[in-house]
Write a structure and sequence with these properties.
The complex is a heterodimer.
Chain A (H helix, E strand, L loop, with lengths): L5 E9 L5 H11 L5 H13 L15 H6 L6 E6 L3 E9 L5 H8 L4 E7 L6 H12 L4 E7 L8 H15 L6 E6 L23 H7 L12 E3 L2 E3 L12 E5 L4 E3 L3 E5 L4 E9 L2 E3 L1 E3 L3 E6 L10 E4 L5 E12 L10 E6 L2 E14 L6 E2 L10 E14 L10 E6 L5 E7 L1
Parallel strand pairs in A: 1-3, 1-4, 4-5, 5-6
Antiparallel strand pairs in A: 2-3, 7-16, 8-9, 9-15, 10-14, 11-12, 11-16, 12-13, 12-15, 17-21, 17-23, 18-19, 18-22, 19-20, 19-21, 22-23
Chain B lengths: L7 H19 L3 E4 L4 H14 L7 E6 L5 H14 L3 E5 H6 L17 H11 L4 E3 L16 E4 L27 E4 L7 H11 L10 E8 L2 E4 L13 E7 L10 E3 L5 H10 L17 H8 L3
Parallel strand pairs in B: 1-2, 1-4, 2-3, 4-6
Antiparallel strand pairs in B: 5-6, 7-8, 7-9, 9-10
Classes of the chains: A alpha+beta, B alpha/beta.
């Protein structure tokens, strides 16, 4: 592992039968990320259940309820490292009733792995997972055509899936799609190149994950700095006048000397310094956590956003978002919610449900005005004070919001600014 | 390749600092749960970096089982002095004396589970609304599903099936009277990441992590240190071995491994070649397949 290695987050959506757990188990096993005591535990359980050999899928079993029911209920995070990269897997269930978990896992991902059973081709579930990947703007999608061993490693079966996938995905916004024929069960093209598919010239899955270009996944153009808190040392004489705005650069690059505007107040100033514990830096870019000082004494607090003066987000009380409802209880008409956007909290109301999307067919329904769990709808939201937003397509960090129900304090919805 | 990207350790560090600042901004009275182990030491180091040039704005809370390594207590007290922060101690011995909990019996008895009551009592007594922990998702399967901001009900319990969804980096720390949160800034770190970071930052850690000579007995597949609290059975033999600890907890159940690694470089190298999980040496996790989940549901770290 080199110091310059990057971190890649990817999500896998899948249901019980399509081999998702086996694929993750295979990735971890063949990249030697499973420890002996974990393997022993899996071997014991495999034996108890009467499986032949080691059932790699058992490695991803989590909570007691899930072990009993044999399904993944929640997002589980898994980690492995190769000499080239560190990986975080957000492992999510694939059934329609777990759309909210898929959305959660997708929200931080650089890449999505979509599994297709070579025998069945593109099915409803494939469309659903692809739609979520495009809705959440996951930069890279890798379609793994699995169970190639069950179709005699046929190139034709592989090509059929590609054609089917390209047919329906043309309507979606996925920038980078790749296809890999694999057998998770037998290990073909997962970590090691398959000896059964000479016709496939591309890289195996792991090599693909190790080499995806991810430096451009974060918006490096629009400089946005949401202020989390203000640092004002009380005691130390040297730092008595220090006033630093602490936060993490959400997008773009800031440099000392840049002209900046503080939103929503509109005051302008220049960046005096970009500080860290290890000293000041000339440039700060997403996702660096820093403390920013300005030339002028301006009243700035949590919830404000510092941006470069020549490139500002929209400040608006009326926003349109694609909203995924996450809660058991349906949205209440005209109910008030707390809207959370970067470090800014405001009150908000859902003014109008424009349409609901059938996530299997992508059809729009303008009649159905209810928001139930797992529904994805386009809605209009009114907030009490302006939010400084960019479109989610341009900027994942400043184009995302959540709604919190003030009656229960639960996170009830996640939205992407249109 | 663009020069505008962070390497994995910088990205993990930045994420943890972001989480710590969110905790500070969203809660009234947050504390760091400090065990003296490497993970809570790293969290404390990150807090120092997050709020510089201000001092660490959190008190450290230590749940003291009474079965400590003396080295850990000294390390804790030195760190408190250096940081100039407040120390809150929740004492398991006091909980026992007050009859809040009953000591386990037998040679495998530990005070591990008893910590839950002491921890929850201390959280209530000091009106803590967020306890920051060094828990990592790679440690154990129940922890793989933890949130960065993890809600606890007014009995201090975790309901893994009813967790708040956590999207992007927007954290919801809203709670009702009597409830509290646990926050896990290093959720996404692995054991290897922690060691690489300690090495890179040259963070001071208790001497127990470095290879040293110690009296031990072989029990449950690891070297258990001899101490005044250890009940040695007739067939067990006290021997002196060069060992080090991968995790630190209650002295009666923390097993060491044979090792010559006496520098951070050697430890990192050794950890990267390990074929057993670090909790494989902790007998508290070996009691059943879901031991950690069951304790966490009740309010464990």
């Amino acid at each position: 592992m080199l110091d310059s290695n990057q971190l890649l987050r990817f999500t896998t959506a899948g249901s019980v039968d399509d081999g998702k757990s086996t694929l993750i188990g295979r990735l971890l096993y063949d990249s030697k990320s499973i420890f002996e005591d974990q393997l022993e535990a899996i071997e014991n359980t495999s034996r108890k259940k009467g499986h032949e050999g080691v059932d790699l899928a058992l490695f991803t079993d989590g909570l007691r309820d899930e072990r009993e029911q044999g399904i993944t209920i929640d997002v589980a995070y898994r980690y492995f490292t190769t000499p080239k990269r560190k990986f975080i897997i957000a492992d999510t269930p694939g059934h329609i009733q777990y759309t909210r978990n898929m959305v959660t896992g997708a929200s931080t991902a650089n890449a999505a792995i979509i599994l297709v059973d070579a025998r069945h081709g593109v099915i409803e579930q494939t469309r659903r997972h692809s739609f979520i990947a495009s809705l959440l703007q996951i930069p890279h999608v890798i379609v793994c055509i699995n169970k190639m061993d069950l179709v005699d490693y046929s190139e034709e079966a592989y090509n059929n899936v590609i054609t089917q996938f390209e047919d329906f995905s043309s309507k979606m916004l996925v920038k980078d799609v790749r296809f890999i024929p694999i057998s998770a069960l037998l290990g073909d093209n997962v970590v090691n190149r398959s000896e059964n598919m000479d016709w496939y010239q591309g890289a195996p899955l792991l090599h693909t994950l190790e080499t995806l270009h991810i430096s451009s996944d974060v918006n490096k153009v629009d400089a946005r700095f949401p202020v989390q808190t203000v640092l004002r040392p009380q005691s130390d004489d040297d730092n008595r006048d220090y006033r630093g705005y602490a936060g993490r650069v959400a997008s773009g690059v800031f440099r000392a000397g840049d002209e900046v505007t503080v939103m929503p107040s509109g005051f302008t100033s220049k960046i005096k310094s970009l500080d860290t514990f290890d000293g000041s830096v000339e440039e700060a870019f997403a996702p660096m956590s820093i403390s920013m000082t300005l030339e002028d004494d301006i009243d700035i607090s949590r919830g404000d956003m510092i941006v470069r003066s020549n490139n500002m987000p929209e400040a608006s009380q009326d926003i349109e978002v694609m909203l995924c409802w996450l809660n058991n209880s349906a949205a209440k008409p005209r109910a008030k919610y707390t809207i959370k956007h970067t470090s800014n909290d405001q009150k908000a109301m859902i003014k109008e449900i424009v349409y609901k999307i059938d996530i299997n067919t992508l059809a729009r329904n303008e009649e159905d005005k209810e928001l139930n769990m797992n529904d994805i709808s386009k809605v209009k939201i009114r907030t009490t004070k302006p939010l400084m937003v960019d479109s989610y397509r341009e900027n994942r960090a400043t184009g995302s919001i959540i709604l919190v129900d003030d009656a229960t304090n639960e996170t009830v919805a996640a939205g992407m600014v249109v | 390749m663009s020069k505008y990207y962070l390497n994995y350790l910088d990205e993990l560090e930045s994420e943890a600092i972001f989480v710590l600042r969110e905790v500070w901004a969203q809660f009234q009275n947050p504390v760091i749960l400090f065990s003296g182990g490497k993970d809570s030491i790293v969290v404390t180091h990150l807090a120092r970096k997050a709020f510089h040039p201000c001092k660490v704005p959190f008190s450290l809370m230590h749940v003291d089982t009474g079965h400590n390594f003396p080295e850990t207590i000294k390390f804790r007290d030195d760190l408190i002095k250096e940081l100039g922060v407040n120390l809150i101690v929740g004492s398991v011995q006091e909980s026992i004396d007050q009859g809040r909990v009953a000591e386990e019996r037998g040679k495998n008895a530990t005070r591990n589970a008893l910590q839950i009551t002491t921890l929850l009592d201390a959280i209530e007594e000091h009106k803590v609304d967020c306890a920051i922990g060094g828990g990592r998702r790679d440690e154990e399967k129940a922890r793989a599903k933890e949130r960065f901001f993890s809600h606890r009900d007014d009995f201090g319990q975790w309901d893994p099936k009813n967790q708040r969804p956590e999207l992007w980096n927007i954290f919801n720390g809203k709670y009702f009277e009597g409830e509290h949160f646990r926050a896990f800034p290093i959720s996404n770190w692995t054991e290897m990441d922690v060691w690489n970071y300690i090495k890179r930052e040259n963070i001071e850690i208790p001497s127990l992590y470095y290879a040293h000579e110690r009296e031990v007995i072989w029990r449950n597949n690891s070297w258990i240190p001899n101490s005044e609290f250890l009940i040695v059975e007739e067939h067990e033999e006290i021997v002196t071995k060069k060992i080090r600890f991968r995790t630190l907890g209650d002295i009666t159940i923390t097993g060491g491994i044979e090792s010559d690694a006496d520098t951070l470089e050697k430890i990192a190298l050794e950890v990267s070649a390990m074929r057993q999980t670090e909790r494989g040496n902790r007998s508290d996790d070996k009691r059943s397949e879901t031991a950690m989940e069951d304790r966490k549901r009740q309010g464990y770290f």
